[in-house]
Design a protein that fits this description.
Blueprint: H1 2-34, E1 39-53, E2 56-58, E3 72-76, E4 82-86, E5 99-101, E6 105-119, H2 143-171, E7 174-177, E8 184-186, H3 196-200, E9 207-219, E10 225-230, H4 262-265, E11 294-302, E12 308-310, E13 314-323, E14 326-331, E15 336-338, E16 340-343, H5 347-370, H6 375-379, H7 384-397, H8 400-418, H9 426-439, H10 445-472
Antiparallel strand pairs: 1-6, 2-5, 3-4, 7-16, 8-15, 9-10, 9-11, 11-12, 11-13, 13-14
């Protein structure tokens, strides 16, 4: 079953990534055609061609019996003899219905990992028999049109991201966490995973009234046996919320949790010994669990009918954990979480939420890119393997909303990355065109080629490095 799920995850990832990249290339292609730049090929995928087709369309004929938009240009053969080569939609005569093949070949290739557009004037071989006049090359049009073509792919990624965000907030149920309530969600036990709360009889929607724990079988730093209760008898409160913080709190750390919240009363204080978020539990910092340690919950609650009940003591065991070559024990989860409910946004609210999400993620991406070469920033960046893992989480979550949000984020990432003024990216091509327009002087083709090649090598090296990092230090 797991193998089939992995295969499905890979297929969905490849298809979605190809779609996002092809949308980017479709932006370049569409604006290039509007600007009358000759496009040899629009390819989905890379590698050997599996399918190739030129669509036909009707055109009017000129006096020579050729398509009315046909142009002829003067060229010379290897011996210097003049040649007349057509640069048109097609060198073929129209069929009996007055249709000719379009100038662009639409190709599906063997490796479905994106796509590309081959435009006249780029570093491509073009098409045999077609000599494109300068005014139909990417370098022969004015700088404004060049910039529009370069930014079109990025714009399409941004539009796609917004549409996916909007689809999520418009059509998919949204989840609201009720942290100010003492109601809980209870994780259901399965054949392979058992949750103590579910096994004890707690149900989603039940309200916790009181909760404390008893730890037994622990040892202190001198290896002496230890047992204790948490919260202690003089620090127990009637539960009023799942999670709330002390008045005036700005950081929201565990130190500032209200003692009348479930999050405080149910936390694993032994696991917190390995977490620097806790500083107010000096009494427990030297205690360690072992294979014989237990943690018992004592709970009273209000059920869905409003009846107050006392749950039989719920005991969980300690399990072994290894982190950074350090072996220690933490306790199994009780299996409760903050109570959530579902709702739908109105049409106006959905637009607002999509805009807010787009803006927040947009600024967040560039903040992350700005801190890429800091230790903390490096920890938060991933390569193609991380993107696949994110996609797999979206697929296995069973949530259409989460899946849409995730791929909107990936599309936004692609657009933001390509907007960077780094050689080989659309942002760099845009910057070059802008500078040429301002200073009215073209950069040499040699400089552009060297810069693009260096940029591609650097990006390839970074991609390989991120793949290694994905396996060694995953997100």
């Amino acid at each position: 079953m797991q193998v089939w799920q992995t295969i499905l995850n890979v297929i969905i990832f490849i298809l979605c990534l190809s779609f996002v990249v092809c949308i980017h290339e479709l932006g370049h292609f569409t604006v290039a055609k509007i600007c009358k730049v000759y496009c040899f090929e629009f390819s989905i995928g890379f590698g050997p061609a599996l399918f190739k087709h030129k669509f036909k369309h009707k055109v009017k004929k000129n006096e020579k019996g050729l398509p009315s938009d046909a142009e002829s240009v003067t060229a010379a053969d290897e011996e210097g003899n003049p040649l007349e080569v057509l640069s048109v939609d097609s060198t073929k005569a129209p069929d009996k219905n007055g249709r000719v093949e379009g100038e662009t070949a639409f190709v599906i290739r063997a490796l479905p990992l994106g796509g590309y557009v081959s435009m006249a004037g780029e570093e491509t071989d073009g098409e045999e028999g077609i000599l494109v006049p300068k005014n139909r090359t990417i370098g022969g049009i004015n700088h404004f049109k060049q910039i529009c073509i370069m930014l079109a792919g990025i714009t399409m990624n941004f539009i796609l991201a917004f549409i996916l965000f909007l689809a999520d907030f418009t059509f998919c149920p949204q989840t609201m966490a009720h942290a100010d309530s003492n109601a809980i969600n209870v994780a259901s036990s399965t054949d392979t995973v058992k949750y103590a709360a579910s096994e004890a009889g707690l149900k989603t929607g039940d309200k916790i009234l009181t909760l404390y724990q008893k730890y037994e079988g622990l040892t202190d730093k001198n290896n002496n046996p230890v047992s204790f209760e948490f919260p202690s008898a003089d620090d127990r409160n009637t539960i009023t919320s799942y999670q709330s913080f002390t008045t005036g709190s700005t950081s929201g750390t565990y130190d500032e949790l209200e003692h009348s919240s479930i999050a405080y009363a149910s936390q694993d204080v032994i696991a917190r010994n390995f977490d620097d978020k806790i500083t107010d539990m000096e009494a427990y910092k030297d205690y360690l669990a072992n294979s014989n340690s237990t943690r018992t919950f004592y709970i009273t609650y209000e059920d869905l009918e409003g009846n107050t009940k006392t749950l039989a003591p719920v005991k969980v065991k300690a399990s072994e954990v290894k982190s950074n070559d350090t072996l220690y024990y933490v306790f199994e989860k009780l299996g409760i979480s903050v109570y959530t409910s579902q709702f739908y946004f109105s049409a106006g609210e959905a637009w607002g939420q999509a805009g807010n999400t787009f803006g927040n993620l947009f600024t967040g991406i560039y903040k992350a890119l700005g801190g890429l070469f800091t230790p903390e920033g490096w920890q938060n960046v991933g390569g193609i393997v991380s993107v696949y893992r994110m996609s797999a989480q979206g697929t296995t979550s069973g949530s259409a909303g989460y899946f849409l949000l995730l791929w909107g984020y990936i599309s936004l990432n692609l657009g933001c990355f390509n907007l960077l003024p780094f050689p080989g990216l659309d942002g760099w091509q845009t910057l070059i065109s802008l500078l040429e327009s301002i200073f009215r002087k073209k950069f040499s083709d040699k400089f552009k080629n060297i810069a693009n090649n260096v940029g591609l090598i650097v990006m390839l090296a970074l991609a390989v490095l991120l793949v290694v990092k994905d396996f060694v230090i995953p997100l």
